[in-house]
Amino acid sequence: MDYGLRFSDPAKYARALRRAHELVMSGVPRPEIPVPLAESWRRSMALGISPDQHSPRHLHDPSEVLQLRREHRLQLVMPALQDLLADDSSSGRHLLVLTDATGEILWRVGSRQALRRADRLEFSEGADWSEAGIGTNAISEALVTGGPVQLFSAEHLVRTHHAWACTAAPITDPATGRLLGVLDISGPLDTISADTLRMVRCAVRVAESLLGTSDGGTSLGASSSVRATRPGDRRPGVAASWLELLGDRPAAVFADGSRVPLTLRRAEILALLDSRSQGWSADELAYELHGDAGTPQAIRTEMFRVRSMLGDAVESNPYRLAAGLAGCSDSGRVLRMLREGQVADALEAYRAPLLSRSGALAVQLLRGQLDLAVGSAVRASGDAGLLIRWLSTDTGSGDSEAVEALGRLVGRGDLRYLAFRASSAS
Question: DSSP label at 51?
Fold first, then answer.
């Protein structure tokens, strides 16, 4: 069975999984259901969970959960997690969930629509989403395996969960290794993408980095609010966990909360590494950044400095971002939002062009691709408000196609259309 179908044709993949689910329930093993997953189903049913049951046990009332939140260490990182992963806009479709170490839900963030869908499954604060509480799901699997996990449709034990795709990963105390809770992203089947698991892992890394600061993360929020420092101030062995590549002040954010400015050349290298998961050879980077005048030795020297600064976040042979940093950049976040249809959020996150001071052709091409992706998504949205926001930015101000799209929506006599048309023509 083609695993990639869960992203390219989720409905077809879900149908195949549901057939496999029924067969395994009747005692017929199926390759679509891995042995560890089938064992989890059996454990769950031995604990009294029926595949037809959809009500988890509830451990605390909502009023009691409020007190549990105030006393839990994860309250320190919840704002950062919400900033990175949540979508509580009116069109938001997925849910951000944070549990304690037992699987009890302490926080939920999502749109009214997503919360209503979750309420029908009692996927709510105070509910127990461990194996014993509701059977096999992404949260329970993260608790059992101790690692990130993704469950799609009928990989869940309970049939009423088969319309959901869920991605979860445990959060541990960086000082003691003790499990603190589980971060979960859940939504309809078509909300999952190839990047969802990577984003959850990235968010967990950010959370654990914040928890590892001297103040427990209380002074830190999302990447834009971390404190600045010089490279020499960084603790030895601390790896980078986020890249700021939009605008003219590129920086690397580290696991200890520090923010280290990047030279333009190093930022250009990291932008290229961030753009291609299979990595780059020294020859390729030399040509992309310097043309025929580039030499592999010059790149190796620069990469030595980059790796000295960023710790184990950059790998070699070929040069590429390590798993903990791959996909963890502000420019990458914009692209992920666009792929997931979150056009308004992507436009808000697109605060400036990619490395706006760079004249390297390869970076200019990446910058143009990002501009084109944002502009195309805004034009296709059919949302006059988004078009006006886009045209009001420096990047979008010259987008004549967006001006015409606005005119079709608001009318050619509308003053806003006339103003933007005059501006783009000047």
Answer: T
Give burial (CB, 10 Å; 0-12/13-18/19+) of 100. buried
For 308, other C-beta atoms within 10 Å of its C-beta total: 10
- State the Cα–Cα distance between residues 162 and 238, nearest whole angstrom: 41
In the chain, where the domains are located: 4-212, 240-321, 357-424
Give every CB contact of residue 376 below 8 A, 6+ residues apart in sequence. Answer: none
pTM reported for the whole predicted model: 0.59
DSSP 124: S
Comparing CA positions, the residue from 141, 143, 160 lying closest to residue 151 is 141
Residues pairing with 96 in the sheet: 109, 185
pLDDT in tens, 3-57: 678 788 899 999 999 999 999 999 998 999 999 999 999 999 999 999 997 789 9
CATH no., domain 240-321: 1.10.10.10
**What is the C-alpha separation between 328 and 89, in angstroms, rounded?**
22
Angle between helix 330-339 and 264-275 (nearest 10): 30
Question: To the nearest 10°, the Cα dihedral for 174, 178, 180, 184?
Answer: 80
Residue 92 CA to residue 109 CA, distance in Å, equals 10
Homologous superfamily in CATH for domain 4-212: GAF domain (3.30.450.40)
